[in-house]
């Protein structure tokens, strides 16, 4: 890899060169971008995506684009990325769009939605179904650009101390489940709370909470929840969690066109790569987990519980759509796209997997 | 985008610059690569992937990496890509690895396998499960590098004039189905044939063949098969068809490191992007097809037919593994990876989709 030690290597010969090779002047300048991430340092998978991105960008640019990353240990504002990138304190951020719903409600819809699209469907929506354009509509007024930043795949419904057999079992259930899904459960009588990740294990072990959701086997194994909660429920609330790269528009506009393209390409590839890495680690970690704790039981919520969750979810969505035309535009676009893409999901991968099961020993 | 009209813009000032900025000399040279594709010109989706790749590479390199693409109309050797890239007649190719199985049998395993991995599982195998390393083992002796080149998603089992209700219905069935899947069907009494794409519609219409497989709704709609065959079977034989970028190793080694990284990144992203595009077009084309011809019926082969196909497939795989240690190494690696990844597929997307169905109206 080429590297450039100074920002203007050619400064000494600038006069000679200007007349016939202005572009090569820009080609030797080093551009430095500062990024803040929501995650603590060494956070697996989530924290690897922005580093993968920065490495690609630096290598592809021959060292002309250098991106440094500050973890939350340093900037102390894990949920302040939106503001720090907006103000220009950082040029970029790595986080998740739904963290800003308290500030800009319509940012909620660009991470994942309960009962919504699965990962390949959602990428189809972003890139071919109008999703990117709608995300731009939401972020543009703040001088921000937002891009997919890595997908976890379908998240698990969480770890439970007791089985959920009916809606009654949700009454008063203390569960760590943030965001929109928490609102859905609250409507059904549960008591959703948010607890910092470092305290989750103890809270579940001491029955301060009865249940929690985190991510899935790709990250849950490291948290050890399988040692203290026997039931692991399949997902309903985050079928395609997509993280986010945020870029300050002024910082982006200052880059020459080739580096802009290197940056957007690196972000896009890093997001797909995180999806594949998550898929991989979910499988391998699940196998490890099962061999360590063979009694972990995978459960799916009963039909009437799921139906009630879906109904509560739908009512909340209708409230959002009624209150804001842009929310309605986004939700209608997602609902329409899901309908079309799901037909294909069902006759392709799903029909294939179902047909294999009929002949498995 | 910057563009460079001459290969050595800085030649005139070379002496002045050499002492302290050698890298910027290389940074102004334009590298040109010639690529041959299997597809005819304007072939949708498959032909868009290499063009998407070339455009990214040119833009990210500020015009220093230019890739021109010859379609099969021009080079006249759609299935000669391997040889033309090996000899250096072309620097790169876009094709599919299983086309070379007659020449190098172990290339068969890097496109997709009957009853094998679905797309995200297979990407996991390529990038985290040893797939890329095994592919290198197969291609390296020929001075070739091979990379994923775009995924179609799960391919459909094909268009049939008559329903397949039992193994008897396969006896003497004339079906256009190339490759390994054709061998599987031949073992069960069918008569697989290969027919050039331009003649497929007429062959099916005039009952020269009883059935054919092509790709899936993403490409089948344009062929019009839905107008002349009522049954559309779900897939078993190509669950994750991955196309291929081939690169001549000497051509690759001549590129400076930053352009090498730009090239590999562009190929990798173009392959994921083709997967998402195929997913998108499969859904939208299926909806169009159904509105035009509402009587098209989606069918899945009966259990005993699928079980016999799987058994025949397994026997063929065992023959391949017994005859060649590298084939055995690849097939064992795939089987092992599939087992681990499939557990995750089943408790994530599949469990989610199944649970939604229980509450759908």
UniProtKB/TrEMBL annotation, chains A, B:
InterPro entries: DctP_fam, SBP_TakP-like, TRAP_DctP_sf. The keyword Signal applies. Gene3D superfamilies: Bacterial extracellular solute-binding protein, family 7 (3.40.190.170), Periplasmic binding protein-like II (3.40.190.10). Pfam families: DctP. It comes from the Bacteria. Residues 1-26 form the signal peptide. Keywords: Signal. This is TRAP transporter substrate-binding protein. It comes from Marinomonas phaeophyticola.
């Amino acid at each position: 890899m080429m590297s450039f030690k100074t920002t203007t290597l050619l400064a000494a010969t600038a006069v000679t060169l200007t007349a016939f090779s202005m572009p090569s002047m820009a080609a030797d300048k080093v551009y430095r971008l500062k990024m803040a991430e929501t995650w603590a340092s060494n956070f697996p998978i989530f924290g690897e995506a922005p580093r993968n991105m920065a490495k690609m960008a630096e290598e592809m640019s021959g060292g002309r684009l250098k991106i440094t990353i500050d973890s939350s240990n340093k900037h102390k504002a894990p949920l302040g990325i939106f503001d720090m990138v907006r103000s220009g304190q950082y040029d970029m951020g790595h986080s998740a769009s739904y963290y800003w719903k308290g500030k800009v409600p319509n940012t909620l819809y660009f991470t994942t939605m309960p009962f919504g699209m699965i990962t390949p469907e959602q990428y189809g929506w972003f890139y071919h179904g109008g999703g990117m354009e709608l995300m731009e509509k939401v972020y543009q007024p703040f001088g921000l650009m937002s891009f997919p930043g890595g997908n976890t795949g379908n998240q698990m419904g969480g770890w439970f101390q007791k089985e959920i057999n009916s809606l009654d079992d949700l009454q008063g259930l203390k569960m760590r489940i943030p965001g929109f899904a928490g609102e859905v459960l609250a409507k059904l009588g549960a008591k959703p709370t948010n607890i910092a990740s470092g305290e989750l294990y103890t809270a579940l072990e001491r029955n301060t909470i009865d249940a929690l959701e985190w991510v899935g086997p790709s990250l849950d194994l490291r948290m050890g929840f399988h040692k203290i909660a026997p039931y692991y429920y399949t997902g309903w609330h985050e079928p395609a969690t997509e993280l986010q790269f945020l870029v300050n528009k002024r910082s982006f506009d200052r880059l020459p066109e080739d580096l802009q393209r290197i940056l957007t390409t690196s972000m896009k590839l890093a997001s797909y790569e995180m999806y594949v890495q998550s898929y991989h680690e979910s499988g391998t970690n699940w196998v490890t987990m099962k061999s360590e704790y063979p009694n972990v039981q995978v459960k799916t919520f009963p039909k009437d519980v799921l139906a009630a969750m879906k109904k509560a979810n739908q009512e909340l969505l209708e409230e959002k759509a009624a209150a804001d035309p842009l929310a309605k535009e986004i939700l209608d676009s997602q609902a329409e796209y899901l309908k079309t893409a799901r037909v294909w999901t069902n006759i392709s991968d799903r029909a294939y997997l179902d047909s294999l099961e009929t002949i498995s020993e």
